[in-house]
Amino acid sequence: MTQLASQVAQCDPVWSKVREEAVALAESEPILASFVHATVLNHERLEEVLSFHLAQKLSNQDVPAMLLRQVFDRAMQRDGEIAAASRADMAAVYDRDPACSGYLEPLLFFKGFHSLQAYRVAHWLWREGRRAMALHVQNRSAEVFGVDIHPAARIGRGIMIDHGTGVVIGETAVVENDVSMLQGVTLGGTGKETGDRHPKVRRGAMLGAGAKILGNIEIGECVRVGAGSVVLRDVPPRCTVAGVPAKIVGSAGCDQPARQMDQRFPEVPDATG
Question: What pTM was computed for the model?
Answer without folding.
Answer: 0.91
